[in-house]
Design brief:
The chain is an alpha/beta fold. Helix content is 47%, strand content 17%. Bound molecules: 4'-phosphopantetheine (PNS).
Amino acid sequence: MKIRAVYPGTFDPVTNGHLDLIERSAKIFDEVIVAILRNTDKIPLFTVQERVRMLKEVVRGQKGVSVTTFGGLLVDFAVQTKASVIVRGIRAVSDYEYELQMALMNRRLSPHLETVFLMPAEAYSYLSSRLVKEISQLGGSVRGLVPPLVVRELQKKHQQSMRIREKHTK
Ligand code: PNS
């Protein structure tokens, strides 16, 4: 029996930590659906379409890996796509409490769905999309933390917002 896993998240933007986890998941499961949440409370830097485009580009050629979006409950999406596993990454102990809460709540909602926690490579254990955005917005280098495509997209975003700010201060 083929095992299909869903790897959900905001991916705003995708980091090398996410990619590391996708690669590890693809080795364990037959199929991995990377699922970008559409209706998040957070105000994203990148639109859903931009995130889909970047993710598709960086996972291109990886066997069994696909990228899509979802709305509503994750457990409903898992049922729709016939996934039996949810993959989540745990970087440090601080991630555990929130992840445990989510995993147990998802189990309550859908008892047959298992959450599997994977650890990214040590080098990415302190990496987050939030920090990547902050560093790049303040002019720091995020090379080696995100794929080269994302480095370029971040630069474009910040140039755009600088131009908008300049226009408003004129
Ligand atoms: O990358 P993130 O922001 O940590 O991902 C969080 C995500 C998308 C996995 C989580 O917010 C989620 O599953 N949202 C979908 C709505 C849902 O099912 N909520 C109940 C979770 S117990």
